Amino acid sequence: MGAGITRLQATVQATVGEIWAAGLYDLENTFSARYQRTWILEDLETAINYATRAVAETPEDHLDRPRRLNNPSALFNSCYERTWNLADLANAINHVEGAVKAAPEGHPNRAISLDQLSCQMNSRYDRAGNLQD
Fold this sequence. Notes:
It is a single chain. The protein is about 80% helix and about 0% strand. The chain is mainly α.
C-alpha cells in the first residue's frame, strides 16, 4: 500500500483544480482505509489533513461538497472516539453541520449528514451533558 500511496501523492501534486481536489479526496480515503487496518493514529491524522484540504479546494456550489464535508466529519469523529478529545468532536460537528447546509432538500447526502449530525450531537450530550444537544 505504501508504494501506491507514494504514486498517488505524486499524481495529486502534478494536478490542479477539481482534479487536484478529487485527488486529495482519494488520498484521504487511502489513509483512512490504512488507519482502519492498522489503527496508527498518524494515518488518521493524515486522512483528516487531506480531507480538510479537499473541502477547502471544493467550490461552495459543487455537487460533491456535502459528501466531502461528511468525510472529515467522520474522521474527526473517529479521532474523538480514539482520544476522547472534545475538540475533535467539535470539529466533527462543525463539518457535518456544513454538509447539512451545503446539501439542499432532496440531495442524496442530506439524510446521511443529518443522521451523522444526530449521532455526533448525542455523543457530545453523553460526554458533556448539555441539554441543547
